[in-house]
């Protein structure tokens, strides 16, 4: 095009600060990078569950070594996803968090703590017995829907500072995996999985992992990883370590709701007692 005033070719001006004018919502922060690491771990957990556990079973490969290593790798990746999930929140509070942070966190949690454990349950059912495949698929759908509902409710409701309403999805996912790895009979395992799903959508209050609790949570995850590695490489006592860790995880999942419910009941009773005392002349 020709500029009518100067008869010279017209060139659109380029603002050197265009990059600086990028909308804040499209910029990724360090916390967002950790959140994306969470999503990658969840996807890779599905990959190892498929290629190392399901495919060998469908092909009739009876060598359990690859299956054990792949199952342990899938669970390790879900544990690593929970580490990323733990630190992205801590980093977001310390440093800048992008406008996409909350949405990225929910989407990543859905992959790592919804899809990955649900898929693990489906594969477990198919390997256990073909007759149990449909039942395990129903249990897996229940887990997935529980995580979806929990994440949706988390996005649109406000609760007291420092607590979660319902079992956090990372804790729920690890509890579901622990139930499977404990190798209980099929029916009790399915009932326990459905029970964990119910806890995720319940109104039971769970403390957020901050400060000392965050340190304890990280230490527990590292310890769980160690148990999985021992089990994967058939270290003497590895099976016992794995089952002990899984049992402790399930016990924690059962005790925390009981403790929270007891504390809430005591609080209500104390409030009523104080109200009666205040009404006395």
UniProtKB/TrEMBL annotation:
Its EC number is 2.7.8.8. It holds the Pfam family CDP-OH_P_transf. Keywords: Lipid biosynthesis, Lipid metabolism, Membrane, Phospholipid biosynthesis, Phospholipid metabolism, Transferase, Transmembrane, Transmembrane helix. Residues 1-20 are annotated as: Disordered. Its main location: membrane. The chain crosses the membrane at residues 36-59, 71-90, 110-128, 135-152, 172-201, 213-234, 240-260. It catalyses: a CDP-1,2-diacyl-sn-glycerol + L-serine = a 1,2-diacyl-sn-glycero-3-phospho-L-serine + CMP + H(+). One of its GO terms (cellular component) is membrane. Gene3D superfamilies: 1.20.120.1760. It is found in: Endomembrane system; Membrane. One of its GO terms (molecular function) is CDP-diacylglycerol-serine O-phosphatidyltransferase activity. It is an enzyme of class 2 (transferase). It is a multi-pass membrane protein. GO terms for biological process: phospholipid biosynthetic process. InterPro entries: CDP-diaglyc--ser_O-PTrfase, CDP-OH_P_trans, CDP-OH_PTrfase_TM_dom, CDP_ALCOHOL_P_TRANSF_CS. Belongs to the CDP-alcohol phosphatidyltransferase class-I family. This is CDP-diacylglycerol--serine O-phosphatidyltransferase. It comes from Actinacidiphila glaucinigra.
């Amino acid at each position: 095009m020709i500029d009518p005033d100067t008869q010279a070719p017209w060139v659109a001006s380029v603002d050197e600060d265009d990059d600086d004018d990028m909308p804040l919502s499209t910029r990724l922060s360090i916390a967002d990078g950790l959140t994306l690491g969470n999503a990658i771990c969840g996807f890779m957990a599905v990959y190892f569950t498929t290629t190392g556990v399901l495919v060998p079973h469908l092909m009739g490969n009876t060598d359990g070594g690859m299956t054990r290593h792949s199952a342990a790798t899938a669970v390790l990746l879900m544990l690593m996803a929970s580490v990323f999930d733990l630190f992205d929140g801590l980093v977001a509070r310390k440093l800048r968090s992008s406008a996409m942070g909350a949405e990225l966190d929910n989407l990543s949690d859905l992959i790592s703590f919804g899809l990955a454990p649900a898929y693990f349950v489906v594969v477990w059912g198919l390997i256990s017995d073909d007759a149990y495949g449909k039942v395990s698929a129903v249990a897996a759908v229940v887990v997935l829907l529980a995580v979806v509902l929990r994440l949706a409710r988390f996005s649109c409701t406000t609760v007291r500072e420092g607590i979660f309403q319902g079992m956090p999805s990372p804790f729920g996912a690890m509890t579901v995996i622990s139930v499977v790895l404990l190798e209980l009979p099929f029916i009790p395992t399915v009932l326990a999985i459905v029970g964990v799903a119910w806890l995720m959508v319940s109104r039971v209050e769970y403390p957020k992992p901050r400060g000392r609790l965050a340190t304890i949570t990280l230490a527990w995850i590292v310890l769980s990883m160690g148990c999985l590695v021992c089990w994967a490489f058939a270290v003497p006592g590895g099976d016992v370590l794995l089952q002990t860790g899984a049992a402790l995880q399930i016990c924690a999942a059962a005790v925390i709701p009981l403790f929270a419910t007891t504390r809430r009941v005591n609080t209500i009773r104390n409030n009523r007692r104080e109200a009666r005392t205040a009404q006395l002349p």
